[in-house]
Amino acid sequence: MSDAFPNNPRQPSPDAPPGNRLREAAPTESTSRALVRVTQPDLLRHAQLEKSRGRLLFAACGFAALFVAVGVKLSLATVFDPAQPRRAAMLSRPPAPPAETPVSRAAVTDRNGEVLAVSLPLTGLYANQREIDNPSEVADKLRRVLPQLDRERLIARLTGDRPFYYIARALTPREMQAVNNLGVPGLYFEDAERRFFPQGRTASHIIGGVDVDGNGIAGVEKYFDERLRTLRRDTLRLSLDVRVQLAMRDAVQHAITDFNGIGGAGVVMDVHTGEVLAMVSLPDYDANDVGGATTDERFNRVTVGVYEPGSTFKLLTAAMALDLGTVQTWSGYDASRPIRVGRHEINDYRGKNRWLALPEIIAYSSNLASAHMAAAVGPTRHREFMQRMGMTSRLRIEIPETALPLVPGQKNWRDLNTMTIGFGHGISVTPLHVATAGATLVNGGILRQPTILAQPPGVEREGVRVIDPRTSENLRRLMRLVVTDGSGKGAEVPGYYVGGKTGTAQKTGPRGGYLENKRIAAFIGAFPMHAPRYSIYVMVDEPKPNARSHGFATAGWVAAPAANMVISRIAPILGMLPEPSTPEIQRAIAMPMNGRGVPGASPPPATTPTANRPPARQATETPPRVAVTQREAALAPR
């Protein structure tokens, strides 16, 4: 081989070491190029590795930044600025109430918070007549979105030269958008409000109503008009209970329907505070549409209607006589013969035609004995008592619609007036007068003016004592006797010990005189009689007999069952449960028909000597043969 390549300088010597050989065997430039050549798959793998390396680097930087941010935040929250307690306190606060749209009148509610009247914000639509070019065309467009508008009236409102004329006072948001989409020049919107009465007909005579401008025109809305405007955020809370109001309305309407009456009235009152829980006058009206109500529907029979009270007034006569000492529970009067005074004659309706003790006078509702009892008191003291009981003046209740009773003048109040008023004729008062008197007779003798404002619990309202507590106790016994043994049996509700008095009176005509077959049937009562809490009054105007009443339309058939219906419904609502009869309850309400044996009363001896008989105006204790007073002698039958 050496011979073959003698001149090859790169050929190593045979004696050279291996390293030299390797060094000498280093490739040439062309050989080096051939060895570093990379294939296409290698290039692809290399590119993918580079891309992955970049992604990993980016992800690492991102995580690093995230951890740095978390670390900084933790440092700020725990070391430099520990704000977590403040944040927790903010989160624990209740959310702020939504902003209320200001209204011009305060809301009115019943005693339990049920809304009776509230002002709602609305949108009004008005027209600038100067900018309306074609009133007929604009009217047609408006009627497409507001079909309730009258076309002819709408055209008249759009025609003219006035810059402001109402088209609609209460638009819904959808109606507002529809009008706006018309794009009619000259039509504008304004913020408005509407008084809304959610209960409709319920308590409409009490709540009253407002006109189109929101001014009170009747009832509470008128009486408290200034207060509702100035204290807009303070709700006016009434003493009414909507549940009791509805129960009374249903019962009175049922009685009117059954006996084909022309109207009716009802009252429920707290005997200790004078709060009126229900006041119903039928027919009534929807308070949301006062303008659509008729005169008869707007007429409040409870506070404006004046009627002869009939036999319900015999309770006042008995209270007066007991309080003045002219009668005792065991004494009485002759009811065997009619009383004639001039051309007038007083009779009993289905009378007993004998001497009657006081309990019998009330239970059997004797006109004759009541007239004698009132005559024994005399006109002067009789009128004074009626004045003390509030029967000659207007009641001070918080609604503007009240009437003054029709009573004889002081100079015209004679013996005949005293006798007829003694059994509820010859005087006309409102049903609220009778209801207030009923509450006074059973609450211990304190007269409190009725109110429709809710009173704070436990606060006793001011009042005036008009009768002795003992007299009030005896009246409770007498009223209970009427329901158990007299004309008020239809009002009895087991467990509630109802007491009361029925009253049927003929109606008087516009020119005086009584109208035949036109009467008022009423019931005044209270419950429970051993511990009275509520008084109740029910009246039906011009009831007519039906088959079930056997041809009668008196209060015992008409008003007493209606009172039963009311008490049965409202007593549980008012938290009262039926009580079983106990000796204590019976002792508190017992009243024998002869008036003897009443706890706390001392009956006279069995025989009374002639020398010890009562004085001239004292009620007699013996049967009809007893001597009568000089005044009674003048009025005795001829």
Please explain how this structure is put together.
This protein is of the alpha+beta class. The protein contains 22 helices and 18 strands. It starts with 17 loop residues before the first helix and ends with a helix. The model is unreliable at about 1-5, about 20-25 and about 605-638 (pLDDT under 50).
Mean pLDDT reading: 85
Helix content: 25-40%
Radius of gyration: 47 Å
Inertia-based shape = elongated
Number of distinct beta strands: 18
Q: Kindly estimate the percentage of residues that lie in beta strands according to DSSP.
A: 15-25%
Structural class: alpha+beta
Write the layout of secondary structure elements.
Layout lengths: L17 H7 L4 H7 L4 H41 L3 H9 L15 E2 L5 E13 L7 H11 L5 H8 L6 E7 L1 H10 L4 E10 L7 H4 L1 E2 L5 E3 H5 L1 H6 L5 E2 L4 H17 L4 E8 L5 E7 L12 H4 L15 H11 L7 E3 L4 E3 L2 E3 L8 E3 H6 L3 H11 L1 H10 L26 H8 L8 H12 L3 E2 L16 E2 L3 H17 L13 E10 L5 E14 L6 E8 L13 H19 L9 H7 L40 H6 L3
Parallel strand pairs: 1-7
Antiparallel strand pairs: 1-2, 2-3, 2-4, 5-6, 8-9, 8-18, 10-13, 11-12, 14-15, 16-17, 17-18
Helix pairs in contact: 5-6, 11-20, 13-15, 13-19, 15-17
Annotation keywords:
disordered C terminus, about 15% strand, alpha+beta, five-stranded mixed beta sheet, 18 strands, five-stranded antiparallel beta sheet, about 650 residues, disordered N terminus
